[in-house]
Amino acid sequence: QVNQEFELAPGGSRTVTGAAITVRFDGVSGDTRCPADATCITGGAAIVRVFVTGAGGSADYELHTGTLAPVQHADATITLVQLMPYPFTSRTILPNDYRATLRVTR
To answer: Is there a contact between 28 and 48 (Cβ–Cβ < 8 Å)?
Structure first.
């Protein structure tokens, strides 16, 4: 549904009724977020890659955890709400462990 948060695992997709689009979470690249148990000079960021189809076309987009700036696809706005898990120095995050929480609005 439009204006509701939903969580996706890498490779997962969700059709958003009311916006006539499907959003697929393709994965995370460049995760440089500062581990929760470390002190960093900068906060870092991760890039969440999504592929959107419908509403007159398809396109790849990048959503950044550092800014949480939304992207626009036709008349739908796609926002990254959060990316989990958050990094810790003692834990390696495997590509399939990520979960992206997204919201689509019009």
So the answer is: yes
Backbone angles phi, psi at 97, to 5 degrees: -80, -20
Are 59 and 51 within 8 A, CB to CB? yes
Max CA separation in the chain (angstroms): 45
Q: Which of 32, 27, 31, 29 is nearest to 9 (CA)?
A: 27
Distance from chain centroid for Cα 29: 11
Task: Kindly tell me if the per-residue pLDDT of 48 is higher than 80.
Answer: yes
- Measured between alpha carbons, how far is residue 42 from residues 50, 58, 63 in Å? 25, 34, 19
Q: How far apart are CA 106 and CA 100, in angstroms?
A: 20
Q: Quick one: average pLDDT of 22-32?
A: 94
- 52-99: per-residue pLDDT in tens? 999 779 999 999 998 999 999 999 999 999 999 988 888 889 999 999
